[in-house]
Amino acid sequence: MDELNTRCGIPLGDAPDPIALFRRWYDDAKHSELNDPNAMSLATATLDGKPSLRIVLMKRLDERGFSFYTNGESRKGHELRSNSAVALCFHWKSRQRQVRVEGTVTELSAADVDAYFARRHRMSQIGAWASEQSRPLGSRAELEQRTADAEARFPDVVPRPPYWTGFVVWPERIEFWQEREYRLHDRCVFLREGDGWTKQRLYP
Ligand SMILES: Cc1cc2nc3c(=O)[nH]c(=O)nc-3n(C[C@H](O)[C@H](O)[C@H](O)COP(=O)(O)O)c2cc1C
Question: Where are the beta strands (DSSP E) in 147-202?
């Protein structure tokens, strides 16, 4: 067994599967993180390579990758639509672990986004109508007025705003980092190759 397996409890095996490993670490984090074990930093960049970074919540991990939801007309929305290269970073302080993901993003289908939006709390749905995410806001009162207006406009079912959307990150590179004594941490990177993955240990 690879030394990394024993030290990190990482079941790499013969056919390395970083998604299975991610799920295991994520399950661990769900038991120990104070808030939002699904919080991930999302790095995007403009077409000319200027980066920006913010936290979003991972809402699903499946064969397509890591999904999250947002306002398609936000700053990140514009950047994602013009440059599909993205990076994610999870940091689970309670486990002294980090997972870095790099890949490309695609927009989820309207059906996918509708299904998720319909499950959200009514006031979160209202908030999606009230907020012109990332654009200038004159005052808090203006936001509260827009919220009240949306509540009055949709007394029953709240439809999904056309600009509210979701994206999925198809991972090409996933790196696991586990803190160890004296800065001699464990790092292992998985690179997508054909239908599978290769793995490589890195110096910390
Ligand atoms: C813990 C946490 C979770 C967040 N989750 C989301 C999210 O799932 N979607 C989202 O659009 N913004 C989320 N935000 C807000 C974003 O970090 C950011 O402020 C907002 O999306 C605007 O980013 P932009 O101007 O780069 O588009 C979250 C912030 C925090 C701190």
Answer: 164-178, 186-193, 196-201
